[in-house]
Amino acid sequence: MSSPDRVVLEGVPRVHFYEGGDECPEDITFPSCLRAWLQYMGDGYGCKLAPADAADWRPGCGYAYLVGLTGLGFWLRWDQAGDEGVGCDAMLMAEDPREPVRRALDAVGHEHDILLKPDFLAPIAGERPAPQAGGCDEAQFRTRVIESLRAGRPVIAFGVAGPPEACLVTGYDEGGDVLIGWSFFQGDPGAAGPLEFESSGQFRKRHWFPDTSGLLLISERGQKPPVAEAHRRALEWAIQVMRTPEVRGRPSGLRAYRAWFESVREDANFASLDEEALGQHYRRHDLAVGFVAEARWYGSLFLRQVASQRAHVSHHLNSAADCFVAEHDLMWAVWEFARHGEPHEHPRRFAQPWIRQRINPLLRLAWQQDEQAAAYIEEALAGW
Question: In whole angstroms, what is the distance from residue 207 CA to residue 47 CA?
Fold first, then answer.
């Protein structure tokens, strides 16, 4: 139902954390939201469970393709001190948080505008501050959301109903006082804050501007680079992501791996921790395990997609993909050691030296696989 005060786009795919079943996990928020946006707009990149029927090239797993284009399939971040121990958030990947977003949209051939609050754009050595509402124009955000939705295009927003990660805004009500959409965090009141819900299950968020860090407004499909050029740029970005040792004052890429397994190795990091601090340490570790498992698995699919189009370097790319699959499997092995008993028991189990003595070599092996994958990708680029 649409009116000047209310527009809701019907049929925008829901995005959410994995809930089991036949669907593949899509737990990395931005590529999942972009995949859903493209699918809704009729420009999807396929699914191995339901392949797209199109004349031009389709990779077979659109989510994997976007995980590769953004660089998230190749990334890792470690923050021993803060709550952002790892990053599933594309906005933490580069000094300019717009970089991975731009690269993905350029590769799929869509013009776009990225509106971010000033705090989000500033180069930060240390923690990213909470977004501030005072330095940005709420009216501009509201106008652009309404214009996009009235044109039939959902908006990818950062925040709204949860932390400043991607969500889909699919409608508005009460002239824009209420935003409607899908958020990965809408089922968690502690993360999403007070929400109402549509009969469809979509969230309704009032007073949304203070909790919105930015907007990605995507236009209709335009010119996109040749597939080979898009792939080359993505692989060059992958190497940059893996080889850059620090982003925003935190270890990144391969160096993040070292910081991670060193934090797990040192008994001094655990001896004096109270229950709350130990829980935070374990959560950082556990999130890293889950992120690497998913990111490298889909990263391997992306590399195989590229290899299928570049026969003369396919050996290097498939070898890199094999390394990523090994990393995925090693993460599941890491989980086997700490995830026994009830969830509340996991941190104390993780703190036991004999458990970490078994986990740490697995993390080192994963780091070595990551290093080898980077070398294979560099060889592929050298022979491109």
Answer: 36
Q: Average pLDDT of 129-148?
A: 76
Cα-Cα end-to-end distance for the chain: 51
Per-residue tokens: 206: 């009032």
Place of tokens 């959410």: 16
What lies within 8 Å, CB to CB, of 86 at 6+ separation is 76, 77, 78, 79, 256, 284, 287, 288, 291
- Give CA 53 to chain center in angstroms: 27
With b meaning 16 or more CB within 10 Å and e meaning fewer, what string describes 234-263?
bbbbbbebbebeebbebbbbbbbbebbbeb
DSSP 72-93: GGG--B--SSSS-SS---GGGS
Residue 163, token pair as written in the block: 């932390």
DSSP 3-state percent helix, strand, coil across the chain (nearest 5): 50, 15, 35
| Alpha-carbon span 12 to 10, nearest angstrom | 6
Sequence ranges of the domains in the chain: 7-221, 252-382
Q: How many residues does the chain have?
A: 384
As a whole number of angstroms, the distance between CA 328 and CA 292 comes to 7
User: Which range in 44-48, 105-109, 114-118, 124-128 is most confidently predicted, on average pLDDT?
Assistant: 105-109
Tell me: the pLDDT tens digits for 4-37? 899 999 999 999 999 988 889 999 999 999 999 9
More confident residue, 129 or 103: 103
Give dist(CA 52, CA 47) in Å, integer. 7
Tokens of 129: 């501050």
Contact in structure between 63 and 26 (CB atoms under 8 Å): yes
Query: 7-221: what CATH class?
Result: alpha beta
Query: CA dist 310 to 60, 226, 321, Å?
Result: 16, 13, 14
Q: pLDDT class for 239, splitting at 50, 70, 90?
A: very high
Taking Cα atoms as reference points, which of 311, 207, 226, 243 lies closest to residue 75?
Answer: 243
Among candidates 168, 211, 232, which has minimal Cα distance to 8?
168
Q: 305 near 348, Cβ under 8 Å?
A: no
Structure tokens at 227: 């597939």
CB 103 within 8 A of CB 69: yes
Distance of CA 165 to the CA centre of its chain: 8
Q: Is the dihedral of CA 30, 323, 300, 243 positive or negative?
A: positive
